[in-house]
Request: fold
Amino acid sequence: MEDNEFNQKAVIGQKIKTFREMRNYTQDYMAEKLGISQVNYSNIEKGITTLGVDRLFEIANVLGVTVNTILDFDDSKIFNIYNNTTEKGVISSVTFQHGISADEKALYEKLIAEKDKRIGQLERENARLSPQKTKSKKK
Reply:
């Protein structure tokens, strides 16, 4: 086996592993769903086993994604959103991991700020309309 072929299989296997871990699935669970042994499934993630198109579609189906999503996945673009509930509602904070540029971070932060502003507007509108609804029901 050529090194390049092994590297490509290992990259795809790593992407599959990342999706599996993001869903908190075990290798045993994946193997059971695919009808193979855990060792055989582990070999897929390690890039030892050559994946056929059908098997790749089966894996994508179990993971709830498309094959293209797996193949195009770039783990350097992962970021985490943590929601903390307080007495004032949900506060979102974004933690960016390696690989995201300062421009991308600024863009995400701007989008989040705009969404927070819109949520505030909708909450005020809802509060303004709520008393009117209760008055109209009493009539």
